[in-house]
Amino acid sequence: MGALRLPSLTSLSSAAAAIPRHRCRRELRLPFRRLSSTNFSAAETELPTTTTPPKPKIQQDKDRVITPRSQDFNAWYLDIIANAELADYGPVRGTMVIRPYGYAIWEAIQDYLNVKFKETGHSNMYFPQFIPYSFIEKEASHVEGFSPELALVTVGGGKELEEKLVVRPTSETIVNHMFTQWIHSYRDLPLMINQWANVTRWEMRTKPFVRTLEFLWQEGHTAHATPEEAEKEALQMIDMYTKFAYQQAAIPVIAGRKSKVETFAGASKTYTIEAMMGDRKALQAGTSHNLGQNFSRAFGTQFTDETGQRQHVWQTSWAVSTRFVGGIIMTHGDDTGLMLPPNLAPIQVIITPIWIKTDEKSGVLDATTSVKESLQAAGIKVKVDDSEQRKPGWKFNFWEMKGVPLRIEIGPRDVSSRSVVISRRDIPGKQGKVFGISMESSTLVGYVKGKLDEVQSSLLEKAKSFRDSNIVDVGSYDELKEAIAQGKWARGPWSASDKEEIKVKEETGATLRCFPFEQPQGTKKCLMTGDPADEVAIFAKSY
Amino acid sequence: MGALRLPSLTSLSSAAAAIPRHRCRRELRLPFRRLSSTNFSAAETELPTTTTPPKPKIQQDKDRVITPRSQDFNAWYLDIIANAELADYGPVRGTMVIRPYGYAIWEAIQDYLNVKFKETGHSNMYFPQFIPYSFIEKEASHVEGFSPELALVTVGGGKELEEKLVVRPTSETIVNHMFTQWIHSYRDLPLMINQWANVTRWEMRTKPFVRTLEFLWQEGHTAHATPEEAEKEALQMIDMYTKFAYQQAAIPVIAGRKSKVETFAGASKTYTIEAMMGDRKALQAGTSHNLGQNFSRAFGTQFTDETGQRQHVWQTSWAVSTRFVGGIIMTHGDDTGLMLPPNLAPIQVIITPIWIKTDEKSGVLDATTSVKESLQAAGIKVKVDDSEQRKPGWKFNFWEMKGVPLRIEIGPRDVSSRSVVISRRDIPGKQGKVFGISMESSTLVGYVKGKLDEVQSSLLEKAKSFRDSNIVDVGSYDELKEAIAQGKWARGPWSASDKEEIKVKEETGATLRCFPFEQPQGTKKCLMTGDPADEVAIFAKSY
């Protein structure tokens, strides 16, 4: 059917005419400014607090293309963020404005996790963001980890404050201060809460979504009567994040335990999900900490157990942040732009009506509306681009660049045949395009849902095979160095010291990302020392 | 049927025995500490930045009663907040921890408004909370209004900052800084966004929910091509807030326009919804501002219109905050505690199973589960209190104090007769109690939904008649003073000067709350000057 349609479309040239449907690469003309990495990230010296606001620009259609991913991964990433309107720089160095399209991805993440948190017995609440400086100092390794990154409020209501206030970098300290007042007996446990909040860390090297001075996250905090319960909770939450990453974000993360060196400041154990980005760098995409009694001892968070004894509670905390949006971009995006997993896409289907003659317009638009309503009624997130300022070809490029999983085209012939054309974002050109799908609601809805599921699975499979082809099993430090030098992840037996772990970082730039939960059977020898090793670890360069 | 049941219940006295069902007032024994107003609110001098953390307490069942509302409204309010576990004090003076039950009310507010905002074309996004100090100074009246209340970050990452940063008290300045970069032509308009965020105002007199150093809100910001569109938007949003207040919160607010004196710092016009609390003080519960071109001129936010001319955009902003939760408490609460409107109640129905003999337990609990599941399946927010530590009478008190609109009791007799007993929170004692409602799912669901609707309407009607009986029409300043002295709202024609408006405040403590949208017909004479007046205004003491 495609061959029958094409001639009539390629010969069109009126105001709203179509660009040939079989063209795979089309010129992208976008009026947006490019984000420059040098503006956002800055060296540790010479940091201007604010960037100069750019002068207002008149709308202009300069040619803009997204830097090819293979050419410059970082430039490509920033181009996507700017052109897909995911985020923009805030006026203060290292801050980010999350624009509606980027925020909608975050909202989809929130919607999913929020339900899961509640299903597993957690309640949302809200703690103040100002923390007395003295709190941060109470847990020794916590203050050591966070003090270099703090933003401090020293003036309030026109007066110098007696005690400076920390703008929360995380909330363990204030949470424990409050838990100490709420927890009295074993009947008050477990206490399981979560908050959706902004946090501030004065990072020197920033990158939109991945590492910003202020970011959004959820932070869960729980208190339990026994260490076993706390451990179970910490594992439950990293498992929830893992499922979320696989099923919703189509990111095949590797879940595991952090080494002592990489453990959260104040935690006994940190569990992590590590994702491989398109440049093969690792991104820590979520963490869950077993805090043991570290904070409860520092803050005196005690309960009376069933035998009447006073005991310190056992705690966990766990978080996922707007960094995850960066992970989605860098896992699935390609030279054309963003590619969103259907389960988290703000727009799952873009409909482009196409007409040439004025008398065709109303028929095409009526059919478009009817198709839109069918899909919407079925819970599919659909948008119509019926603007007349842009030609269809421009729209195709635009919505592909925005990563919309499916495109539906409806032209006069489609109206006659009561069918539509559907293209997949993840398969370029003819291969991803199917003609003649019936407009009839039940057929179309079923077809579209099926295709969205296919795209979702396909993104995961593609990311999985990319990941697996870039993990190298190594048996010696030389092999590790070679794998890292090739930009890959090195996986090998590890039982060496913290000092040797730090040496690897200094010499190769790679860090120990995790000891994966999935471990090979059999006896192993540490790649560094040759001593017996219980586990393999993964080393990689990371964001 | 009630008479038939009571004897068997009043004679019970085993571990989980019931307290007689006809008792209207029962002793309330709660283990919670009381919030003291002196800890939270403080005079302008001698402000400790942090309060001393209270020592951990062993759980104890001291007798606790909520201060009667008529005796001390403020103490009553704080008692409800503490006992219903809505909020607690944060460690920094004037900050508040919003506990799960209080936060769930805020989430219900968010759920409703978020859908309405999106339906009317607004997109959520997120702006950084740190604003360069110079931004605040750009709009003259804005800096005048906000500079006394600012929290300033002066240290970041261990270094003194070159330019101090304001922790956002509101976001008009940073929004305009960004709008200036995004808006180029009339095609980019209207630009309509919203953000859910925390904001900080260094208030001297604080009160949980009503006025806190940090609070949560939504702030909408829009930019339009014409003043008419901006005005229409500002009115649309105050109308949305009004409907929300009436339909969801059962608060019969009076919507109107603020006087020039009371207009938001930087706005051309401020619209407001004013709610009458149980002590007859006014609470400004939401505002919508027509900003005119004040910020667009200060920040150079311009667009090219259809004729190619550069013009400044016309803007609005509008907000509702966690203060609204305080409004709900102070509108509907009574001596027994909180009373929540069903549409915003985190728990709409509490089910209390009651059994005496061990062999009755499983039958009662099975019936309870089945009733719970029926209601849940119908979308009703239901909770079962089957704890065995507390007697039914204690539970009745507890959940009444928590403001749950309906209580269902299920005892062995109810199981035999396949029926339940339902009590309304808003009608105490026998009058609010109905026996013998069938457990059969469709009957019960229909009955419960109907009752929830009745409670919702009834709360609104009660609040309306309270409001109307406390607004006095006045024709002279003497009458105004008398009405205010009686604690009422004074409504009268007003066309006097700002100076005279300020005089009223100084002499009576009352401020001009608004010129209501609903105005009486006919010619009027200003109550202060006797000059012709176009409108009546409402004066009242306020929070």
TrEMBL record, chains A, B:
SUPFAM superfamilies membership: C-terminal domain of ProRS, Class II aaRS ABD-related, Class II aaRS and biotin synthetases
Keywords: Aminoacyl-tRNA synthetase, ATP-binding, Ligase, Nucleotide-binding
Signal sequence residues: none
Record's keyword annotation contains Ligase: yes
Domain Aminoacyl-transfer RNA synthetases class-II family profile: residue ranges: 93-341
Pfam family membership, one: HGTP_anticodon
ATP-binding is among the record's keywords: yes
EC number: 6.1.1.15
InterPro entries listed in its UniProt record: aa-tRNA-synt_IIb, aa-tRNA-synth_II, aa-tRNA-synth_II/BPL/LPL, Anticodon-bd, Anticodon-bd_dom_sf, Pro-tRNA-ligase_IIa, Pro-tRNA-ligase_IIa_arc-type, Pro-tRNA_ligase_II_C
GO molecular function terms noted in the UniProt entry: ATP binding; proline-tRNA ligase activity
Catalytic activity entry: tRNA(Pro) + L-proline + ATP = L-prolyl-tRNA(Pro) + AMP + diphosphate
Bilayer-spanning residue ranges: none
Location of the region described as Disordered in the Swiss-Prot/TrEMBL record: 43-62
NCBIfam families given in the database record: proS_fam_I (TIGR00408)
Protein name in the entry: proline--tRNA ligase
Species for this entry: Penstemon smallii
